[in-house]
Amino acid sequence: MVFSAAQIAGLVKGVVQGNAQVTVSNVAKIEEAKKGDLAFLANPKYEDFLYNTQASIVLLNNDFVLQSPIQATVIRVGDAYAAFAQLLSTYQKMQEQNLVGVQEPVHIASTASIGDNCFIAAFAYIANKAVIGNNVKLYAGVFVGDNVVIGDDCILHPGVKIYHGCVLGKNVVIHAGTVIGSDGFGFAPQADGTFGKIPQIGNVVIEDNVEIGANTTIDRATMGSTLIKNGTKLDNLIQIAHNVEVGSNTVIAAQAGISGSTKIGNGVMMGGQAGIIGHLQIADGTRINAQSGVIKTIKTPNTAITGTPAFDYSAAVKSQAIARSLPEMEKRIKELEQQLKQLIEIKNNGG
């Protein structure tokens, strides 16, 4: 696809400086861009590349001051990074608009309902009474279980599995290999030392505008629903246990784990490999550092925590600084002990 600077400026509400008719057909990093490419500059560390780039069009922030002329046509925007992301999203959607229809072989149950303008790739399986909204994309190997509801404009990438009874809102994106609605980890100790399985009869509800990375697992509730609220973004390789609730616009990085029945607030940021034990409450805006282990409820909003067990970030940093000083402190204590010993000996000798 080919776009002119004028068309791009219209999409991102920008202002063109230079040739408004110059066109691009590709996007590239500013240090690698060539003629016909669109690039952007948001990080000042890459400014030197701006004056030598071969890109035809460059997105720049409104307040960025050029130190010398450049060859590229400039489009000024409020936030170059956000504008570039918007363009990529628009481009991707335009490409996906051409994907419509049902490939073969697929299985679509006679009781399933399929909306308009959907794409269902080969080897997809849609079970009894499943409801698929409009403009949904189901790629190869997707499994949609009995009574599943998938809202409009959702995209399920290859190999996604949605177990029975789960509900997806609108504009949900789920990447390859993710499993939604597998059984929660519920087992009851028995008198003979074995573990009896507790049936998991709830479901998973994912609200609108959620994106879930590859190979993530979200367990169905024992009763009720495991809930992922509007606008939340989950990375790859995350485990979310039964009856967890994740608030709106929360972001969780890869390899994090959340144990059963924990409630996470809105706008929480959780770093990679962090873990939270079960039945806790995590306040809105909490920031959990990577590899932190959270073992108690966080009641105060906008708290930053780190460590295992996790505690206040500022206090943790001070503790780490003290820990690094321990060898020197030990040396000084030994010197003081020696001096004290000498003083005692002098005193005892009548000095």
* Number of DSSP E strands: 40
Level-1 CATH class name of the largest domain: Mainly Beta
Domains, number: 3
Radius of gyration: 28 Å
Count every helix, treating DSSP H or I runs of 4 or more residues as helices. 5
Q: By CATH's scheme, which homologous superfamily of the largest domain applies?
A: Hexapeptide repeat proteins
CATH architecture of the largest domain: 3 Solenoid
What is the 3D form?
Answer: flat
Assess the beta-strand content as a share of residues. 25-35%
Structural commentary:
This protein has 3 domains: 3-96, Udp-n-acetylmuramoylalanyl-d-glutamate--2,6- Diaminopimelate Ligase, Chain: A, domain 1 (3-Layer(aba) Sandwich); 101-314, UDP N-Acetylglucosamine Acyltransferase, domain 1; 323-348. Helices cover 18% and strands 28% of the residues. The strands form 6 sheets. Strands 8-11-14-17-20-25-28-31-34-37-39-40 form a 12-stranded mixed sheet. Strands 9-12-15-18-21-26-29-32-35-38 form a 10-stranded parallel sheet, with no helix packed on it. A hairpin with a 4-residue loop joins β39 (304-306) and β40 (311-312). The protein starts with a strand and ends with a helix. The mean pLDDT is 94.
